[in-house]
Amino acid sequence: MSTLKQELEEAKQSMLESEKKLKFKEETAAAAMAARDAAEKSLKLADLRSSRLRDRVEELTHQLEEFENREDSRGRNRPRYVCWPWQWLGLDFVGMQPRSDTQQQTASNEMELSEPLL
Predict the structure, then answer these.
(1) Which terminus of the chain faces fewer neighbouring Cβ atoms within 10 Å, N or C?
(2) How far apart are CA 106 and CA 88, in angstroms?
(3) What PANTHER family does the database record attribute to this sequence (predicted)?
């Protein structure tokens, strides 16, 4: 009888240990599934952000190309550079708009204040 009681007690202990192991495995599996779900959500969010950023980069690139094209077309009709003494002397050069009276007066005043050209 005592041997049977001892074997029964050992079986109960084994059963408790097995239940603890099973509970631990279930908790581990639940944590792993929660981690997987969180990782999937994170990946979806990162994918959404990257697609929005990609769209924004494409939009900005398109705007830059349009701006450069407009600048190129404007630049073809204007002189490349302006030599400052010509402006002060009131001389016209190719592509220059005619000066107003105020601009001519300012230019002559500036010429009087500057050193003479040799």
Answers:
(1) C
(2) 9
(3) OS08G0559800 PROTEIN, PARAMYOSIN
Distance separating alpha carbons of residues 90 and 79, to the nearest angstrom = 17
Q: What is the pLDDT of residues 68-111, one digit of tens each?
A: 888 777 666 555 555 556 555 666 555 555 555 555 555 555 55
Residues 60 and 92 sit within 8 Å (Cβ to Cβ) = no
Measure CA of the first residue to CA of the last residue in the chain; give whole Å. 132
Q: For residues 88 and 114, is the Cβ–Cβ distance under 8 A?
A: yes
CA distances from 32 to 22, 23, 28 (A): 15, 14, 6
| CA–CA distance, 80 with 74 (Å, rounded to integer) | 11
pTM (2 d.p.):
0.46
The closest alpha carbon to 114, from 82, 88, 81, 83, belongs to 88
Report how far residue 84's alpha carbon sits from residue 103's, in angstroms, rounded to the nearest whole number.
14
Q: Virtual CA dihedral for 36, 42, 48, 51, nearest 10 degrees?
A: -100
